[in-house]
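The passage that follows is intended for readers who have already worked through the single-chain material. We present the inputs for a multi-component assembly, then the predicted structure in tokenized form, and finally a short commentary. You are encouraged to pause after the input and sketch how you expect the pieces to fit together before reading on.
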Amino acid sequence: MEYINIFIKASFVENMVLSFFLGMCSFLAISKKVKTAVGLGAAVVFVLTMTVPINWLISNYLLSENGIFHTDLTFLKLIIYIAVIAAMVQLVEMVVERFSPALYSALGIFLPLITVNCSILGGALFMDSREYELGEAAVFGFGSGFGFFLAIVAIAAIREKLRYSNIPAPLRGLGIAFIITGLMGLAFMSFIGIKL
Amino acid sequence: MDPLKPIRNSVGKKLWKQVEELEPSFKKDGMLHSLHSTFDAFKTFLFVPPTVTSKGAHIRDAIDLKRTMFLVIIAMIPALLHGIFNVGHLHYVANGMYPHFFDGFGPKLVYGLIHVLPIVIVSYVVGLGIEFAFAQFRGHPVNEGFLVSGMLIPLVMPPDIPLWMVALATAFSVIIVKEAFGGTGMNILNVALTARVFIFFAYPTYISGDQVWIAGLPESPDAFSGATVLGVWAKQGYDAMSHVGFSTVSQQVGYTPMDMFLGFIPGSIGETSKLAILLGAVFLIWTGIGSWRIMLSVFVGAFLMGLILNAAALGFDLSNPHLAVPAYYHLLAGGLAFGAVFMATDPVTATQTTTGKYIYGLLVGMISILIRVLNPAYPEGVMLAILFMNVFAPLIDHMVIQSNIKRRLARG
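Having made your guess, compare it with the prediction:
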């Protein structure tokens, strides 16, 4: 029950994109087509699901005072988190390039840029500050990734539909994307306070 | 085709002459050219445009956007009339006067009119004003889309809502949700619904709680409560609804399922009477404007989720009394029926594909009940559920279409 609660909280109530507005750069840049959005969303799900528990292990067994080094190494936290994330992203990049060159070229620079996507580092830091257990951290990572996936795929479908709309010229492109993001945030507010 | 041919009576002919006389000054070189879209709006409002297509698809149907909108407004009239009477009825009952239904019919009607009409007028004036202004500046014809939204907005407001809030919410939703996206038919969220959500999040005390649903509650507000059915369920469990409802000067009045169906209970102006909404639904389905698939699947989804939660109530703890509410009660309570018939079926923001309509409706119904029961902060979930599914409607359509393409490719 606790795990379901964390999952729902991470993916709907405290959606990385729509309630914290983290990871906006790739969210806005890669959401023009559903197909590429699915690719990027899946990559983020994978990276978050892997990095949050790995970082949990590192932070609890290597960096903390009770870890194997018996010294407080928490000042290394940010660097090590980023290194783990970068390694995971490299892995994803190689897999995508090998199996789907079309998606690889469509995602372009934004695939390696997942490394510095704030929602992923944010996932690791939230895991830290909320003091989750290992299982909870894994569920939280997957839930956050799923929330990102849902949001980016939904906005991509909306933007595909909006290609036929007569949007005022100054708002075309990023302007309307920001407005849609805000309105989606309004819709996601419906889950605030849900508890199982 | 001679546009005058179908006009038989003399008033119509005179009016047409008037329109023809005015027309030149709105043409390209006329002095009123800048107002031509306003003129155009009123002209097509009065007469069917005499446009004859010369190539391409020839649509030989009298129905166009304006007439569609009018049919939807006709479907809303029962709910509106009931709402007007109900506002007056509850006011007098709560104050201990005319406790019986037919007593004081006149005063009740007048009181209701005084409270409801200003909201309708404000919503139309603000909304249509913005709509006309945008049409002038952007140089496109005035869209008729607001005719329906302007009637929906008053129907989902509590009777005592301050008028400036109605104006603000209407302005927000028309500008941000509709005109920024290009006007009628291009918005992604339902305009009327967003207006209500705007007030709900910006001024929550004016649109939730026990005190706002009856106009002019008696003095000393602590002694009186006008809790909605959902409010009672959320706080005291559903057993309590037979004796705890809203209080009058002399007694507490409870609710029965029949009350919930006929709708002489506190609530938003247009949402209380399921009978009036049913009449509207029949009319919408009969004219082919509202999608029966969406209406049906919203109710099925809500009922299913009610059953699931009932099972959960048996299996787990009973700390949430709301879990045990029988599933069919959910269909009669709150704004579910109104949302299902008038909001979820909005052809612009709902899904377009047939399969998509079933999926969309089911999810709207299920999420409505989920929010209603499991979210202690919001006793009513229909409006938020529809808004949430509006966001995902394009995605559902996309997936339905893609799977269709795949299936047909596989068939070869």
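Commentary: Chain A has a mean pLDDT of 87. Chain A is about 70% helix and 0% strand. How closely did your sketch match?
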